[in-house]
Automatic annotation (TrEMBL):
Cofactor binding note: The Mn(2+) ion enhances activity.
Organism field: Pantoea coffeiphila
GO terms for MF: metal ion binding; N-acetyldiaminopimelate deacetylase activity
Pfam families: M20_dimer, Peptidase_M20
Domain Peptidase M20 dimerisation span(s) in chain numbering: 178-270
Stated name of the protein: Peptidase M20
Keyword Metal-binding: yes
Cofactor(s) in the UniProt record: Mn(2+)
Domain of life of the organism encoding this protein: Bacteria
Entry binding sites for Mn(2+): 93, 95, 128, 154, 347
Keywords: Hydrolase, Manganese, Metal-binding
One BP term from GO: diaminopimelate biosynthetic process
Taxonomic lineage: Bacteria, Pseudomonadati, Pseudomonadota, Gammaproteobacteria, Enterobacterales
């Protein structure tokens, strides 16, 4: 299979994006692609996940190579002919490209299976906030498909095309979500003296929350707190009975998360109390930090060198989050950034995966197999 066919497939997936646990079309395409290669296929792992198993030789060694399949709940505002045809759903993070790169590697390995051991091709649903990696793991992923280590790749617009970076230890942050609802009585906007103002309190709380990182954490402990949404009110002349703000927290240390959550609850209570209101805080730690094991991070960089890719150790981790962290809690492994510039930033409404990256990803996936399962080249 040549690159033009893989590009066409990637663009087809981009036209037909699917949200978490609804990747039925994508999963069917992946499964049929693998079956056509003669690879053993297992469907419905973690709801809509797919695993392909390619075994050669007699070794009991085994690795997992993972790609994510889901899209984001946002409109595609790009101008390319293959833009999303599904309103409110868009491949704005490049999972369509990740899927095709792993399929391309599977095709090459099936055609030239010069390795000794087992490669498990893991196509994961629901990476975008719905913990598909956790669902697959809890569905017996590593019991049914044993792996000595697992590896994953993500396109990275901040790096030049084809440049590889990773690091031992933290590579991506833990992802937390919070929502604070401010409760009051509501009333007429022209009589504010009679009604505690939920929107004023909520606005003050937004400012107060942004003091937590700068004033309650050690400056050497990286963390981000961002309010991303405020909802409240129905009319220009009414103070609403409730208002809600929500956002995200990113950090690497559980003690830092503890401090942020504690201070958030304290501020929500004190700020709203000062206005004669109350608050309800919901705080969810949905993804742990993504922690690479040192040996597998070294394997990832050696594979990049073997594949002829420009590579180096990342100077610092990113404060974005990734549910591959659940797989790394179960198995040693490494998560790697593969430069995809020039492209829009990830999660941008005009983002489109850079198809020129496909050969680089295939080369790296193959080189990981060569490094770990002793392919003769």
């Amino acid at each position: 299979m040549d690159i033009s066919q893989l590009v066409a497939l990637r663009r087809d997936l981009h036209i037909h994006p699917e949200l978490a646990y609804n990747e039925h079309r994508t999963a069917a395409i992946v499964a049929e692609f693998l079956e056509d290669l003669g690879i053993e296929v297992h469907r419905g792992i973690g709801k809509t996940g797919v695993v392909g198993v390619l075994k050669r030789g007699s070794s009991t060694r085994a690795i997992g190579l993972r790609a994510d399949m889901d899209a984001l709940p946002m409109n595609d505002l790009g101008s390319q002919p293959w833009k999303s045809q599904t309103a409110g759903v868009c491949h704005a993070c490049g999972h369509d490209g990740h899927t095709v790169m792993l399929l391309g590697a599977a095709a090459q390995l099936a055609a030239n299976p010069d390795f000794d051991g087992t490669v498990n091709f893991i196509f994961q649903p629901a990476e975008e906030g719905q913990a598909g990696a956790k669902a697959m793991t809890e569905d017996g992923l590593f019991t049914r498909f044993p792996c000595d280590a697992v590896y994953a790749i993500h396109n990275w617009p901040q790096l030049p095309l084809g440049v590889v970076q990773t690091r031992p230890g933290p590579i991506m942050a833990a992802g937390d979500a919070f929502s604070i609802t401010v409760h009051g009585g509501g009333g007429h906007a022209a009589q504010p003296q009679l009604t505690p103002d939920t929107l004023l309190a909520t606005s003050e709380l937004v400012v107060a929350l942004h003091t937590i990182v700068s004033r309650n954490l050690d400056p050497c402990d990286p963390a981000v707190l961002t309010v991303t949404r405020i909802n409240g009110g129905f009319s220009h002349n009414m103070i609403p009975a409730e208002a809600t703000l929500s956002g995200t927290v990113r950090a690497f240390d559980s003690a830092v998360q503890d401090t942020i959550e504690r201070r958030m609850r304290e501020l929500a209570a004190s700020v709203t109390a000062a206005h004669g209101l109350t608050a309800t805080v919901k705080y969810e730690r949905y993804y742990p930090a993504t922690i690479n094991s040192a040996e597998e991070a070294a394997v990832a960089l050696r594979a990049a060198r073997r594949a002829g890719l420009e590579h180096g150790e990342a100077v610092k981790p990113a404060l974005t989050s990734e549910d591959f962290s659940f797989m790394l809690q179960a198995k040693p492994g490494a998560y790697l950034w593969l430069g995809s510039a020039d492209s829009r930033p990830l999660h941008h409404s005009e983002y489109d995966f850079n198809d020129a990256l496909i050969p680089y990803g295939i080369r790296w996936f193959r080189a990981v197999v060569q490094e770990t399962l002793g392919v003769k080249i």
